[in-house]
Write a structure and sequence with these properties.
The complex is a heterodimer.
Chain A lengths: L3 E4 L2 E4 L5 E7 L5 E8 L3 E10 L2 E4 L7 E2 L9 E3 L8 E8 L10 E2 L3 E5 L1
Parallel strand pairs in A: 2-11
Antiparallel strand pairs in A: 1-3, 3-8, 4-5, 4-9, 5-6, 7-8, 9-10, 9-11
Chain B lengths: L3 E4 L2 E5 L4 E7 L5 E7 L5 E8 L4 E4 L2 E6 L4 E6 L8 E9 L5 E4 L3 E6 L1
Parallel strand pairs in B: 2-11
Antiparallel strand pairs in B: 1-3, 3-8, 4-5, 4-9, 6-7, 7-8, 9-10, 9-11
The chains are: A mainly beta, B mainly beta.
């Protein structure tokens, strides 16, 4: 089954404790992206990657890091989480090298709470 | 303010009725997409309409695009309780680096 898999789905952590949210897709997609969703603000892009070893900042990259060492994986790293990073996070992928080549496939989301 | 803004913010209808949601945007677009999100779940792509298209259908969904008014509408006919979800439009525009920009969404509740 074609899918984007994120882990963990739920996480409660404390300020400053490094964490990684993993994302993996099995569709051989070139493009992968991370979003955060907050009430009233819609989805905002954090980082995106158009291919292996190619990553770029989205609209709200502060406090986040990513890597793209393999085509299928695109982990999101919070080196020192803060309470304002409490949010619902989504990973998405697309077969093209940017978003405008068709539909985005989304993961089920990772709800992060930073105390 | 956002490139894509949905209207209304929330909509409550009875099962069997039609639901119409609107999306307005500010700049010229390459295409516009609609997504559905069930509570706490990932977004699911519904339909993509290109700037040179005026209407598209997919099952009970009908999407229209009026580039002169910079607006789109999503019509769900004969709604079902399972259609209860949030609906987002997303625009792809050169002015925004050809990235998808999502609106804040319309919350649809279909009562059975």
């Amino acid at each position: 089954e074609a899918q984007v898999t994120q882990n963990p789905r739920y996480l409660i952590t404390v300020t400053g404790k490094k964490l990684t949210v993993t994302c993996s897709q099995n569709m051989n997609h070139e493009y992968m992206s991370w979003y955060r969703q907050d009430p009233g603000l819609g989805l905002r892009q954090i980082y995106y990657s158009m291919n292996v070893e190619v990553t770029d900042k989205g609209d709200v990259p502060e406090g986040y890091k990513v890597s793209r060492k393999e085509k299928r994986n695109f982990p999101l790293i919070l080196e020192s989480p803060s309470p304002n990073q409490t949010s619902l996070y989504f990973c998405a992928s697309n077969f093209g090298t940017s978003e405008n080549t068709g539909e985005l496939f989304f993961g089920e989301g990772s709800r992060l709470t930073v105390l | 303010s956002q490139q894509g803004e949905e209207d209304p913010q929330a909509l409550s209808i009875q099962e069997g009725e039609n639901a119409t949601m609107n999306c307005s945007y500010k700049t010229s677009i390459n295409n516009l997409q609609w997504y559905r999100q069930n509570s706490g779940r990932g977004l699911v792509h519904l339909i993509l309409i290109r700037s040179n298209e005026r209407e598209k259908h997919s099952g009970r969904l009908r999407v229209t695009l009026d580039t002169s008014k910079k607006s789109s509408s999503l019509l769900i006919t004969a709604s079902r309780a399972a259609d209860t979800a949030s609906y987002f439009c997303a625009t792809d525009a050169r002015e925004y680096g050809n990235k998808l920009v999502f609106g804040a969404g319309t919350i649809l509740r279909v009562k059975s």
